[in-house]
Amino acid sequence: MSKIWVTGGHGFLGKRVISRLEELGYTDIVNPTHSECDLKVMAEVEEVFHAHSPDMIVHLAALVGGIGANRSRPGEFFYDNMLMGLNVIEASRKAGIKKFLCAGTVCAYPKFCPVPFKEDDLWKGYPEETNAPYGVAKKALLVQLQAYRAQYGFPGIFIIPVNLFGPHDNFDPESSHVIPAMIRKFVEADAAGAATVKLWGTGEASREFLYVDDAAVGICSALEQYDSPEPVNLGTGREISIKRLAELISDIVGYSGDIMWDPTMPNGQPRRQLDTGRAKDSFGWEAEVSLEAGLRRTVEWYTNTLTV
Questions:
Q1: CA 255 to the chain's CA centroid
Q2: What is the mean pLDDT of the chain?
Q3: CA distances from 105 to 53, 57, 65 (A)
Q4: Quick one: which H or E segment has residue 209?
Q5: Is 134 a catalytic residue?
Q6: 99: closest CA among 223, 234, 232, 285?
Q7: Taking CA atoms, which of 46, 60, 156, 211 is between 20 and 30 Å from 299?
């Protein structure tokens, strides 16, 4: 019988979360567009509460992007993400909601965090510089939730998804993350018969990737079953080098040219691999879709969009 407001419900992850909630039987979901509610304006946030009276919040709305977008717009990435979260959490506190889930980011972890990343290591260093404004803004929302729980008994939880990917991702070359950016480059190079594809960095950094549908299941499971001030990682617990990722995507696309690396461009954080034990122990969640299977689905979806 709960009425749930999913902020960012029209986005890549938000659409999957709403679909999962509907599968679980939730029928009363609030999902205003950005034009209907700018989360940076408190009066507009409060108007959603007045009009709809949601009693559970899933806060997914965020300004996100790859390394290039984070480097060129650090002020926006800090301000927008900080302000949206501050407003929604405070308005939720005043409304007396019964559950609040906030999606954080793996970018909040220290640049040289021990691998695998454990939630207790979140404060043991400063994030990698290229995405620190985004990561710090999100991490500050964890502090807000914990402070509100301590003072007001606010029922807020904080979930940390690793890098997400899947069909319907953002493939814009100016703002996309690494997987959609690579898929687009290899598909276009294959179509043009290009001899080489040029990629940022050295390829030596590692990343962990989570299929977006698995993330949606984890978020909804946490919403229903988890209630603690401690953050929870969502991931696969398996890392892959960017070089190997590029080779895998190239093979799936069918591109037969060479891959050239540009070491003058940043690698980002040296390594990313999460410890996912808390999610399994706390609400029985584990990722199901393998990286290769998810990549094949994503490449198939993207190439199909080009033929429509």
A1: 28
A2: 96
A3: 28, 18, 12
A4: strand 209-211
A5: yes
A6: 223
A7: 60
CA angle centred on 229, ends 228 and 232, rounded to 5°: 75
To which residue do tokens 């490449």 refer?
299
The C-alpha atoms of residue 175 and residue 164 are separated, in whole angstroms, by: 14
Give backbone dihedrals phi and psi of 121, rounded to 5 degrees, phi first: -95, 5
Over the stretch 235-248, which tens digit does the pLDDT of each residue have? 999 999 999 999 99
Record the pTM.
0.95
- Order the strands of the 232-234 sheet from edge to edge: 28-30, 3-7, 56-59, 99-103, 156-161, 232-234
What whole-number distance in Å separates Cα of residue 255 and Cα of residue 248?
Answer: 10
CA-nearest of 220, 196, 204, 274 to 99 is 220
For the stretch 118-129, pLDDT in tens is 999 999 999 999
What letter represents residue 56's amino acid?
A: M
Cβ atoms of 270 and 205 closer than 8 Å = yes
Residue whose pair of structure tokens reads 């070089």 in the numeric block? 243
Question: Cβ neighbours of residue 192 under 8 Å, at least 6 residues apart?
Answer: none
Identified catalytic residue from 26, 79, 109, 134:
134
Question: Which one-letter amino acid corresponds to residue 96?
Answer: G
Spatial distance between the Cα atoms of 152 and 77, rounded to a whole number of angstroms: 29
Give the C-alpha separation, 79 to 39, whole Å: 12
Q: What is the pLDDT of residues 260-291, one digit of tens each?
A: 999 999 898 899 999 999 999 999 999 999 99
> Which CATH homologous superfamily contains domain 3-167+208-238+272-289?
NAD(P)-binding Rossmann-like Domain (3.40.50.720)
Task: DSSP for 53-106, please give it.
Answer: --SEEEE-------HHHHHH-HHHHHHHHHHHHHHHHHHHHHHT-SEEEEE--G
Residue indicated by tokens 């301590």: 150
Give the integer Cα–Cα distance in Å for 18 and 28. Answer: 10
Is residue 204 within 8 A of residue 241, CB to CB? The reply is yes
Q: Which two tokens stand for residue 119?
A: 């939630």
